[in-house]
Amino acid sequence: MCCSIRGCRHDGPDRSDVCACGDTRPPGQHRGVRPVSVADPEMLDAPEPVEAWWRRLLRDPSALLASLVLLIVVFCALAAPAISPHDPFASSRAIMQPPIWAEGGDWLHPLGTDGQGRDMLSRLFYGTRLTLIIGLVSVGIGGAFGSLMGLLAAFRPGLDPWVMRCVDVMLSFPAILLGLALVAVMGPGALPVIVALAVATVPDCARIARSVAVSVMQQDYIEAGRALGLSNFALFTRYLLRNCISSIMIFLSLRFGQIILIGAALSFLGLGARPPTAELGMMAAQGRDFLLFAPHIAIIPSVLIFVIVLAANVLGDALRDVLDPRLRS
Predict the structure, then answer these.
(1) Which among 34, 8, 31 is positioned nearest to 17, based on CA atoms?
(2) Which residues 6+ apart lie within 8 Å of 124 measured at CB?
(3) Domains of the chain, CATH where assigned
(4) How far apart are CA 248 and CA 267, in angstroms?
(5) Please, which pLDDT band fits residue 33 given cuts at 50, 70 and 90?
(6) Can you give the pLDDT at residue 60?
(7) Which of 5, 22, 142, 264 has the most CB atoms less than 10 A away?
């Protein structure tokens, strides 16, 4: 190579001042060849724009169906006060009325009533809202703290042993056991469940973020940024975080379904929201005493939990296929 420009070579030992491009000007000013600079943004491994992600995602029919299901669920949860046909906490004389597809059902209570005569459809709307809030808040808080711990461990190698030992300690506490401990201290309710699920999300997210960040820190554009004199904050936010965010999003989208399932299990065990608050796991638990003669009380909220978790997992798999460059190639 006669200079730092790719494609420029000496024609021979007697023409050391002439490059293969035929230009005798100093390196970096040759015609037809653009100089390579460490400050050139095109030489950095910049993430793809969001529009490209959406275009690829919209080509997947399973992702579209999962997105549609989740949008319907979220809309029903947000619009619960407006679309609920009855007060979800009000009792009626129609105790354990079957749904409309069973004998004895009517359109006044399309999904029937529970053991206290409360409308199942209205309680499903409100229960879905609380279940989604628990899942989103837990994933958001746990993902934020876990991602920060993992990225800092990779960005500051001196912190790596301390951060990862904390992660190992947190991994030794299952979410169910942590929920039991928090309920014993704070009492039953949605807040202990959120704290337990968020703490259970932190170590897994930290490990994922650290593994991705370690490979990013070995790339040439990190050294180029340091050579340019960029601050640590700029390196962390512009280069490290932007190149790790897609992998973190993939993990959190898959983790959301697990959090919904674990949260429903904690509520099923009586560790979640207190009655008469509507929550899908607690509704399924309340219906287990009526499985023989009113199975819809437990089956309907259980089916809704299954649909939400399945749609979240399918969408997470689709996001992985879209955002992971190794799978795209």
Answers:
(1) 8
(2) 111, 278, 280, 283, 300, 301, 304
(3) 1-30 (no CATH), 59-328 (1.10.3720.10)
(4) 27
(5) very low
(6) 75
(7) 264
